[in-house]
Design a protein that fits this description.
This protein is of the alpha/beta class. It is built from 7 helices and 5 strands; from the N terminus they run αααββαβαβαβα.
Length: about 190
């Protein structure tokens, strides 16, 4: 990647202190002296303030960042999931397009179940692709909280109760996990 405004003491390197810095080298704007100059006076401030914040800042939430990634290249890998922890396992690759599609599907499901802005959706799930769909979909529909599934049912119940969760999403019965049993215990206690 060629940088157009290198630091004098480190050619080819830009300081990563920009609000909209892109750490993957795929920024949608080129970094140039025109948009990365120090503020030297009132005219610089007026130039900056002449651009609406929404235009300068880029996406302000996770969903918009994912939509932006899908817009750049929907076939690019967004997530790599190692489902069972085996070192020789083939990673499950999820593209930005598939991630976005499944997030929207999850958000629509949550809305159809009565989740609205301000409602809490609690997740009791291990690291799976579906966990990401549910997490980001819950953020679109309402508020998402992820609860550590390794806690004891009593602790999970207290977290769910305190959060005021309207919905609990949990991994169904699966070998090696006690999540479903814990979710049922929480349901009975709440």
């Amino acid at each position: 990647m060629k940088l157009s405004a290198p630091m004098a003491d480190a050619p080819g390197i830009l300081p990563m202190d920009r609000f909209d810095a892109d750490f993957h080298g795929l920024a949608d704007i080129a970094v140039t002296p025109d948009n990365y100059a120090p503020i030297r006076g009132l005219s610089d401030i007026e130039r900056i303030e002449g651009v609406p914040f929404e235009v300068r800042s880029g996406p302000l939430n996770s969903f918009d960042l994912i939509k932006r990634g899908a817009g750049f290249d929907s076939d690019k890998t967004a997530l790599e999931i190692l489902s069972n922890g085996e070192a020789d396992q083939v990673l499950q690759r999820i593209t930005y397009g598939a991630l976005l599609e499944n997030i929207i599907r999850a958000a629509n499901l949550f809305r159809s179940l009565g989740v609205n802005k301000g409602d809490v959706v609690a997740l009791l799930m291990p690291n799976l692709a579906e966990t990401h769909y549910a997490l980001w979909g819950a953020q679109v529909a309402g508020i998402a909280i992820s609860v550590n599934w390794m806690l004891e049912p009593r602790q999970i119940t207290e977290i769910i109760r305190t959060s005021g969760a309207k919905l609990l999403v949990a991994l169904g019965p699966a070998d090696g996990y006690e999540i479903w049993d814990k979710a049922r215990a929480v349901r009975d206690a709440v």
